[in-house]
Write a structure and sequence with these properties.
heterodimer, A: 194 residues, Glutaredoxin, five-stranded mixed beta sheet, 8 helices, B: 1048 residues, alpha/beta, Rossmann fold, 6 domains, globular
């Protein structure tokens, strides 16, 4: 595993609060986390809700170590359990995501209509190597070194009638082919990321 | 807005809602489900909204859910008071002005109108829209909707999902009201039990019994959960149901809460469905506002609330115990049962979990009674099920059918079958837990038990249709990869077993698999199925076990022949075109050599891959076109005509001698072995060429006077000039192949003599017997079988045909016969029992025949041939046919009607198919199939007699030139392996250096096609119709290749 963040060990209650006090821009973040926790704590599915909200607020759409430690401290859920949850579900990211996310559906209908070829050609187009141990894997998240694009896959968007489907920055595009995808990705690359 | 406290307020609300659904002004509703949006529905809605505001129109505009016909999206429904509701399809924003214009004149835009709805059964209410527009079909008359019974989808696409008033207007929350007023929870449970409703999530457990467990459990707090974590790839009905009708789900759950004594409901919904999440959240808010959720629901002493939790993307959370773990803040790993959730579920409290669709059935059952429900569907599986019909069918979408409906109905009647030119191979049901059902079993009833017998399951209702472009080994691998990555890792059989299974399957797709691994995979699958902890592991092997059971031959292809017929497994092919070519020609190579201007090298490379390149360049069925990836840019590379160009440039010029010498120089040293080839058709010639090339002494025995088989004697001069074929045969002869003409095996020489005289024998006798139809009048003068007719023309004796001829059949022989007759000045009509698109003949040839004045009569079966007193043909009587049920080829079977039509004619040509010469085949003593073809080992082409091999039409039945040549090439390789004990074919056609760099640019030109003679010139003689590509055209065509053979 490869985490850019500090170690996850030492889930003490103080970690989060020190960070909150010592880093003014983070104050708003911790206030947000507090608010989310207050809203859902104790209800079924609370932890998922907290993690989803915190990740969504992160400009790079991922969960970093200090956020997880802070949540652990605030909710009294062991950090080990939080880490287990974060790494278990496909929705959570432990790495910063690119400016643009291209998500290729690997559902059955998309597969039968050539979504793997789309995935391969997009990887080649963006010059991304397969990570070791990921060879040929269908479930992946890859970000270009310049942080511009993230390619990910989803088990199924439920848009099977439009197969093959690609989601470009949350916009669903159906009946894709290699050429159209390359064009769309080019267009995304031209856009300035705010 | 006020809380509903009594029936008076409830009824008032209903009136208010009706005024929205059936207002006093026109209503336009845009289907704004996710698939509608994906096709541009938002733009349509905005354009409508803008235009209505701008012009101050009295039109009520609504955003509704999805009506299920995804392939026709965006759908817009238009209603004028008193008229039927009309559904418009494929509406774009640019159509909006037209629609409004027409509407202002009380008209419906005709080219967009798809169907009308005069009245609608919401089950909980009945709505009458009105009557009119006689020119439009009723919705139920369209094939896509035929037989559909909308219970679960009763409101989808008709009411606004974000407006509780519209739900109440169509009878929503009435069932809840009734249950609360009756106050007899036990009797509701009895009703659900009596309805035989079974869980719609996959396992199919009886819902009523599950509820009873929860009702009997004693605890201060009980939960009911809706499992909306629809993770099955290929299934999306739950998304659509929640998006389009969220209150239908809430009502089912509130009733469930009341009768089981639960106080809290939870909807666990996929986060990947943002619109469903949005609509559901809004519906919950509205329901609370109206006093339908929360304390004292509908003014009764019942408290119940519903919360929504967004799942974070884990397939295993569809398993109920994993879902509970997920809600408790853990990773979603299943727990052993018992205890069952009904005893100890969420937070240790009694819990009941049902799938989305199960909940939608509750209100209808409560209102209409269990007897109504059990009348729908099959005996053991009552009611309907929503299926997502997707993949390789023409009409895709959500289809709600009574349980027990056969698969053919889904695939062909509703789905419209495969795209043109393709055939459906299988249907995958039940997603990663289900299996693949082959097309031979499409009469299977879709219900829980029948699917289970075939090793599949109904699951959540995904139905993915596959055609011949889908590789079943790859599909098995795909599903195992999916379950492998979704396995939670808790139990060993699933975690380790699926990993091993994936490794084996990866090997199969890469060509490194072995037969022993196939057995191992089967055992492993059964072990995983029998010993895994939860449903995911227990069902994960189903896709593999069913494909191995129903598509074993595809596994064998990958393991033994190292071939993937569908062309999906890239490691097993050079390029898609090479894979599709029966001769496996290295097409990118000859294209590149020509592109580099090396015409002689290109010829040598082509000839070593295909010793009849000029003939096949004219008559091949070119399967390569269908696979070419250039199609995704514009149209396929014209590979067939390029190799014809390359071949003509040598065979028909003075380059012949030097190139013949170059090829002869490649001949290997004599082996001292001798091989007899019986039949000088495409299969025999090809085998002879390769066997001679590797150094064997080859003799070809042919009972006719010249070589070429069908190429010489059946395919007319205007398609394949004889001099072209003669040059190819000459080049083969230069390799030392000996020919004995007029030497019919079985008469001049016996099989035993061949056995004694040669080390191996290859039988390529073709199919030269014309099938005879069982038809009165075939004994008349003027009735001719197609092959003898074509043969007599090819040998220069034109039979007398009179003035008019009819041809019975739809294959190439029929078209060749008709076109030949036209050239003899005869008026020709082809009579075919199916439709034009079903004709087996090459499409270009059919088009050319039509240009030349050949007439066609489709949907016509021969009835009898009428003769005169002297025994001459006078007419053919045909019976009109209509298309009936789909047969196993995916075509509709022609059914003969009583309508007889008489076609006056002087000759009738029978071109209804060719078969093997049965007398010879029977006398050979070899094992035969029923049709008389030789039984051979699929991979070695060995017959039942040692040292005897067979190929071509004689083993496949009448096929085409390239397929026959493919057999010839394979037979030569296998015979050589057998004689020499070594694999000597690798590199036989090698030794060419050419660019393996991806082309910087490719030609942007559209596909080049050979010029052709004008029809008037053509019919005046026998000149070749297709002139051939010019130098420049062929060169540019070769630059259109994308070079799929180069891999990064």
């Amino acid at each position: 595993m490869n985490h850019p963040e500090p170690s996850l060990r030492n889930p003490s209650a103080r970690t989060g609060e020190t960070a909150a006090a010592g880093n003014p821009p983070d104050a708003a973040k911790y206030a947000f986390i507090n608010e989310v926790i207050a809203r859902v704590d104790g209800r079924p599915g609370a932890l998922l809700g907290i993690l989803e909200a915190v990740q969504e607020r992160n400009p790079r759409k991922y969960l970093c170590a200090d956020e997880l430690s802070y949540i652990a401290a605030k909710t009294n859920i062991p950090l080990s359990q939080i880490f287990s949850v974060v790494t278990f579900y496909a929705l959570f990211n432990r790495e910063p995501q690119g400016d643009h996310t291209i998500c290729i559906c690997r559902g059955t209908a998309c597969h039968t209509r050539g979504s793997r070829t789309l995935l391969e050609s997009l990887r080649l187009e963006l010059g991304m190597e397969e990570a070791p141990g990921q060879a040929g894997a269908d479930k992946l998240t890859l970000t270009t070194p310049d942080g511009k694009f993230t390619i990910r896959t989803v088990a199924c968007f439920g848009q099977c009638a439009l197969a093959p489907v690609v989601e470009l920055d949350h916009r669903i595009c159906g009946h894709m082919n290699e050429r159209a995808l390359a064009r769309e990705v080019d267009a995304l690359g031209q856009e300035r990321h705010e | 807005m006020s809380r509903i406290e009594d029936i008076g307020i409830f009824n008032a609300m209903r009136e208010e809602g009706l005024a929205k659904v059936l207002p006093a002004m026109p209503r336009i509703a845009v289907g704004m489900g996710t698939c509608g949006r994906g096709n541009g529905a938002e733009g349509v809605y905005q354009a409508l909204s803008h235009a209505i505001d701008r012009d101050g129109l009295d039109i009520r505009l609504a955003a509704v859910g999805c009506f299920g016909a995804c392939s026709e999206e965006p759908l817009v429904s238009v209603w004028l008071p008193g008229q039927p509701l009309v559904i418009l399809r494929r509406v774009q924003a640019s159509d909006v002005e037209r629609i409004l214009n027409d509407l202002s004149r009380g008209r419906i835009t005709p080219d967009l109108a798809w169907c009308k709805i005069e009245e609608w059964d919401h089950i909980t209410a009945h709505l009458r829209y009105g009557q009119g527009f006689p020119e439009l079909p009723l919705w139920s008359e369209l094939p896509f909707f035929s037989g559909q019974k909308k219970i679960v989808l009763r409101n989808c696409g008709l009411i606004a999902p974000d407006d509780i008033d519209e739900y109440i207007a169509v009878g929503g929350y009435q069932a809840l009201y009734k249950v609360l007023i009756d106050g007899k929870p036990e009797s509701v449970i009895e009703q659900i039990k009596a309805s035989k409703l079974r869980g719609r999530g996959g396992a199919g457990y009886a819902t009523g019994i599950k509820w009873e467990f929860l009702a009997k459990a004693k605890d201060d707090r009980k939960y009911i959960i809706c499992n909306a974590d629809e993770g099955d790839p290929g299934a999306y009905m739950n998304r659509n149901e929640i998006e389009s009708d969220p209150h239908g789900l809430l009502e089912g759950m509130i009733i469930g809460g009341y009768v089981t004594g639960a106080s809290q409901g939870i909807v666990y919904v996929r986060a990947e469905y943002p619109l469903a999440v949005h609509h559901l959240a809004r519906a919950i808010d509205q329901a609370r506002e109206y006093g339908i959720l929360g304390a004292n629901i509908l003014g009764r002493p019942f408290h119940f609330d519903i919360e929504m939790v967004e799942g974070a993307g884990a397939f295993v959370c569809g398993e109920e115990t994993a879902l509970i773990a997920s809600l408790e803040g853990f990773s979603g790993r299943p727990r052993p049962r018992p205890p069952y959730p009904a005893q100890k579920g969420l937070q240790g409290k009694p819990t009941n979990i049902n799938n989305v669709e199960t909940w939608y059935n509750i209100a209808p059952i409560v209102l209409k009674g269990p007897a109504w429900f059990t009348e729908i569907g099959s005996t053991k599986s009552a009611g309907t099920k929503v299926f997502s019909l997707v993949g390789k069918v023409q009409n895709t979408g959500l289809v709600e059918m009574p349980l027990g409906t056969p698969l053919t109905k889904f695939v062909y009647d509703i789905g419209g079958g495969a795209a043109a030119g393709r055939t459906v191979k299988a249907v995958q049901t039940g997603g990663p837990s289900g299996g693949c059902i082959p097309h031979e079993m499409f009469d299977t009833a879709v219900d829980y038990e029948t699917l289970a017998q075939l090793g599949s399951i109904m699951g959540s209702g995904g139905m993915v249709v596959m055609d011949e472009d889908n590789c079943m080994v790859d599909i098995a691998r795909y599903f195992i990869e999916f379950t492998h990555s979704e396995s939670c890792g808790k139990c060993v059989p699933c975690r380790v077993g699926l990993d091993q299974a994936l490794e084996i399957l990866n090997g199969f797709t890469k060509g490194t698999g072995t037969a022993a691994q196939l057995t191992l995979l089967n055992e492993l699958g059964r072990m995983i199925r029998d010993t895994s902890l939860c449903g995911l592991g227990q069902t994960a092997p189903n896709p593999v076990l069913t494909t191995m059971r129903h598509f074993r031959h595809e596994f064998d292809d990958h393991i033994i022949a190292k071939r993937c017929r569908a062309g999906v497994c890239h490691s097993l092919a050079l390029s898609p075109c090479e894979n599709s070519c029966p001769l496996h020609m290295n097409i990118p190579r000859f294209l590149d050599l020509l592109k580099e201007g090396r015409a002689d090298d290109a010829f040598e490379a082509v000839f070593l891959d295909n010793p009849l390149p000029a003939s096949t360049g004219r008559v091949c069925q070119h399967p390569c076109d269908d696979r070419c990836r250039r199609q995704t840019v514009d149209s396929p590379v014209n590979m067939r005509e390029v190799h014809r160009f390359i071949a003509d440039a040598v065979l028909l010029t003075d380059r012949f001698e030097p190139l013949a010498a170059r090829i002869a120089a490649r001949k290997k040293a004599p082996t001292g072995k001798s091989v007899a080839v019986v039949g000088a058709g495409p299969a025999g010639l090809t085998a002879a060429f390769y066997l001679a090339l590797v150094g064997h002494d080859v003799t070809v025995f042919e009972n006719k006077a010249e070589a070429g088989g069908m190429l010489r004697y059946a395919i007319p001069e205007y398609r394949l000039p004889k001099r072209v074929l003669a040059q190819e045969v000459e080049l083969i002869r230069r390799l030392g192949v000996k020919f004995q003409f007029g030497a019919g095996v079985g008469s001049a020489i016996t099989l035993n003599e061949l056995d004694e005289g040669f080390d191996a024998v290859f039988l390529a006798i073709g199919t030269w017997k014309e099938s005879w139809v069982n038809l009165p009048g075939t004994e008349l003068k003027g009735v001719l079988p197609a092959l003898p007719f074509l043969e007599s023309v090819a040998t220069g004796t034109n039979p007398a045909l009179g003035r008019k001829m009819t041809v019975i059949g739809g294959g190439n022989a029929a078209v060749d016969s008709a076109r030949t007759a036209v050239r003899m000045g005869v008026d020709a009509t082809i009579v075919y029992r199916r439709e034009r698109k079903d004709m087996p003949a090459i499409k270009e040839e059919v088009d050319a025949a039509e240009q030349e004045g050949v007439k066609f009569l489709f949907l016509a079966a021969p009835h009898r041939i009428v003769g005169d007193a002297r025994g001459n043909v006078r007419a053919l009587e045909i019976a009109k046919t209509r298309l009936g049920q789909y047969d196993s080829s995916g075509r509709r079977k022609p059914v003969v009607t009583a309508e007889i039509v008489r076609l006056d004619c002087d000759a009738v040509v029978l071109a209804v198919g060719e078969t093997v010469d049965l007398d010879f085949a029977r006398a050979s003593g070899l094992t035969l199939r029923e049709a008389g073809t030789f039984v051979v080992d699929r991979f070695t082409l060995e017959t039942s007699r040692p040292n005897f091999f067979a190929g071509g039409d004689a083993i496949s039945g009448a096929s085409n030139v390239s397929n026959a040549m493919g057999f010839g090439k394979k037979a030569a390789r296998k015979i050589d392996e057998r004689l020499m004990g070594a694999k000597r074919f690798a590199g036989l056609a090698g030794g060419f250096q050419y660019s393996m760099e991806p082309p910087e640019t490719t030609s942007t030109s559209p596909r080049h096609r050979s010029a052709e003679l004008k029809p008037a010139v053509r019919v005046a003689g026998e000149d070749e119709v297709m002139v051939g590509l010019t130098d420049a055209e062929a060169g540019d065509e070769s630059c259109r290749c994308l070079r799929c053979d180069i891999r990064g």
